[in-house]
């Protein structure tokens, strides 16, 4: 029974991870930057939902409000910092966003306090298999909303004009520029969409789990890991590896103990990278 | 080496030897500065010379810290009971036990991380660019999280290192740790300077500029990369061991494997001074430490905000660092031959 419990928990959790990882893949593919502040954007989105909860609005509305606010936060970050690192070395973007991450962590710590908080949705729980498996309805809700947003985004990327421009820029920024795409605008929109996705995920996390100003980095690492396992632009892969990671985490939590949960995520990242490196080095190649 | 540089070295050495007596109030700050310079200089071997931007040197630093303290305690007393008793001292080191333990601890703290670096080097250094950066970042955080769950070294509640013994009423703690860290700094400087005059540095630079070509030229790049990492690990472990004794208290994520603070500091210091130069990290670390100690108190809790802004500003507007800027401005001083006509033409083009 505990196995089924862990699997289901991990599956629902993994869908959320996949949503964050999709944002990561989007900006990595289009702008060629790795955003260490991804997790902090998620947490900031979570705090927006939490504040709505504090002021008596049902936190589920955060799913709508949080991405709208986060979109503009993302645009602001892009205008201030990211547009200066887009064409440069990837390490510059890693370090610059690491700076943003530290900044956000501390600002959130000042603004919202260092307590672990959650927004109570009051959705109750569902019992399965003769009451042996307990599933909070909020988790099911969050997985459902994640899937809805992911589908909306995929359709938007396929159909809309901006989506086409984004895909064109990802394929070849120079050619897109020649053909009249305002790449600067596309980059800003991409980063904004990524931040909005983080906002949705954050609002869902604040409903289902807990948020804390310093919990950002693990979400960044998880999404990075999902993207390198799945590869850029492989959406089913992102979803699959997200769920796989969720299940892995639940089992690590159950077998090793909660204190090693985050540690095992980071170790898994190292192991995956090393495994890929050895696999590629047989063909005398390396991860690019 | 010409006469001027000899005068400079002797001047710095004399200053270093007398500094704790001239500025007795800043002994601890000066010791921390020495440790920071060691960390920045060794980071520069990877990030600056070899082009492998690592966040993972904090692993060796934290490992050295824990190992030094564990050996120092474990040589004479049961380690588990020590950490369990926490701050209350049930065991007291005699002076000779303290110094023996410290000496043995520092040797272990330097040697074991070197071996660890050698063992994981083959796996990790096969990654390149940002994959290497993220992988080492993960390694550092994982080490912090895992060591925070191990009971025998204090787990979440921390590990108190042995207090400095009282020798006949003499208060020499500050001087002891200052000279220890200054010694480590001198050792690091001599070693790194010696390395930088050899073919080894050229090979590292070749790896940075184009690893595939270096390999095609017949250089066994992996061997040199691992050697470079092991050298870094040796000095990082040593610095960690000293810092553990200096701080007096080891916490897994806040002191030892502090990727958010020390792990970023070493990258930032090297970049601020200018990576890929001998003096860059030293100047960068000194500037950074002065800035940090001078202004940190004014920010009152806003330090991390200031740190975040500082990182972004340095990385975006000042990626070449101070030495890079000087080099651009006075290329003759760096032994570069400049064609005046060509330079003028370039200036006019701008």
Structure description:
Chain A is mainly alpha-helical. Chain A is built from eleven helices and two strands, in the order H-H-H-H-E-E-H-H-H-H-H-H-H. Chain A has one domain (2-260): ABC transporter involved in vitamin B12 uptake, BtuC. In chain A, strands 1-2 form a two-stranded antiparallel sheet. In chain A, strand 1 (125-128) and strand 2 form a beta hairpin. In chain A, helix 2 (38-54) packs parallel to helix 4 (90-112) and helix 2 (38-54) crosses helix 8 (183-208). Chain A is globular. The model of chain A has no long low-confidence stretch (mean pLDDT 85). Chain B has one domain. Chain B is built from 16 helices and two strands. Chain B has helices at 3-22, 27-50, 57-74, 79-85, 95-124, 129-147, 173-196, 199-209, 211-216, 221-247, 252-256, 262-273, 280-299, 303-317, 321-329, 340-349; strands at 159-160, 249-250. The longest helix of chain B has 30 residues, at 95-124. Classes of the chains: A mainly alpha (288), B mainly alpha (350). The interface between A and B is large, with 43 and 41 residues.
Q: Main sheet of chain B?
A: 2 strands, antiparallel
Oligomer: heterodimer
Structural class of chain B: mainly alpha
Strands of the largest sheet of chain A, in order across it?
1-2
Using only C-alpha atoms, the radius of gyration of chain A works out to: 19 Å
List how many beta strands of chain A DSSP finds: 2
Strand order of the largest sheet of chain B: 1-2
What composes the largest sheet of chain A? 2 strands, antiparallel
Report how far apart the termini of chain A are: 42 Å
CATH topology description of chain A: ABC transporter involved in vitamin B12 uptake, BtuC
Q: What's the pLDDT, averaged over the residues of chain A? A: 85
């Amino acid at each position: 029974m505990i196995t089924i419990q862990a699997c289901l928990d991990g599956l629902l959790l993994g869908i959320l991870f996949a949503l964050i990882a999709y944002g990561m893949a989007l900006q990595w593919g289009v702008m060629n930057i790795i955003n260490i502040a991804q997790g902090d954007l998620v947490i900031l989105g979570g705090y927006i939902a939490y504040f709505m909860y504090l002021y008596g609005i049902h936190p589920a509305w955060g799913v709508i409000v949080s991405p709208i606010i986060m979109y503009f936060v993302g645009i602001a970050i892009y205008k201030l910092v990211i547009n200066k690192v887009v064409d440069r070395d990837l390490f510059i973007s890693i370090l610059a966003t690491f700076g943003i991450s530290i900044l956000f962590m501390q600002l959130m710590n000042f603004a919202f306090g260092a307590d672990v908080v959650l927004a109570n949705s009051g959705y109750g729980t569902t019992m399965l298999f003769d009451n042996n498996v307990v599933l909070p309805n909020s988790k099911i809700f969050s997985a459902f909303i994640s899937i809805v947003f992911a589908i909306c985004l995929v359709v938007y990327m396929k159909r809309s004009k901006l989506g086409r421009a984004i895909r064109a820029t990802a394929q070849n920024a120079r050619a897109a520029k020649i053909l009249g795409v305002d790449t600067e605008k596309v980059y800003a929109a991409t980063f904004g969409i990524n931040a909005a996705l983080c906002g949705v995920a954050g609002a869902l996390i604040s409903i289902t789990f807990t948020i804390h100003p310093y919990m950002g980095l693990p979400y960044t690492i998880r999404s990075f890991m999902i993207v390198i396992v799945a590869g850029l632009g492989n959406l089913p892969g992102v979803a699959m590896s997200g769920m796989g990671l969720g299940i892995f985490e639940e089992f690590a939590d159950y077998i090793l103990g909660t204190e090693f949960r985050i540690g095992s995520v980071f170790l898994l990242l190292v192991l995956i990278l090393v495994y890929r490196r050895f696999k590629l080095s047989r063909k005398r190649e390396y991860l690019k | 080496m010409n006469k001027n540089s000899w005068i400079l070295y002797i001047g710095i050495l004399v200053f270093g030897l007398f500094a704790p007596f001239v500025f007795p109030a800043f002994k601890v700050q000066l010791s921390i500065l020495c440790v920071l310079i060691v960390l920045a200089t060794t980071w520069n071997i990877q990030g600056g010379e070899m082009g492998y931007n690592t966040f993972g040197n904090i692993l060796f630093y934290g490992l050295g810290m824990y190992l030094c303290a564990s050996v120092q305690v474990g040589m004479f007393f049961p380690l588990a009971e020590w950490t369990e008793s926490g701050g209350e001292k049930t065991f007291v080191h005699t002076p000779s036990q303290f110094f023996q333990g410290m000496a043995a601890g520092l040797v272990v703290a330097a040697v074991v991380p070197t071996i660890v670096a050698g063992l994981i080097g083959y796996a990790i250094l096969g990654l390149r660019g940002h994959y290497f950066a993220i992988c080492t970042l993960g390694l550092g955080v994982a080490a912090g999280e895992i060591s925070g769950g191990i009971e025998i070294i204090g787990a979440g509640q921390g590990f108190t290192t042995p207090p400095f013994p009282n020798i006949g009423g003499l208060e020499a703690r500050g001087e002891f740790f200052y000279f220890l860290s200054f010694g480590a700094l001198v050792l690091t400087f001599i070693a790194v300077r010696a390395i930088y005059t050899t073919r080894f540095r050229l090979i590292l630079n070749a790896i940075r500029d184009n690893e595939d070509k270096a390999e095609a030229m017949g250089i066994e790049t992996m061997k040199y990369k691992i050697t470079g990492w092991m050298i870094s690990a040796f000095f990082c472990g040593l610095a960690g061991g000293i810092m553990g004794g200096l701080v007096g208290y080891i916490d897994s994520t806040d002191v030892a494997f502090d990727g958010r603070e020390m792990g970023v500091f070493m990258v930032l210091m090297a970049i601020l001074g200018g990576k890929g130069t001998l003096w860059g990290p030293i100047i960068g670390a000194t500037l950074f430490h002065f800035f940090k100690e001078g202004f940190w108190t004014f920010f009152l809790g806003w330090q991390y905000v200031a740190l975040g802004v500082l990182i972004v500003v340095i990385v975006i507007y000042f990626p070449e660092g101070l030495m890079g800027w000087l080099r651009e401005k006075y290329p003759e001083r760096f032994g570069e031959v400049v064609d005046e006509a060509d330079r003028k033409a370039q200036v006019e083009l701008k």
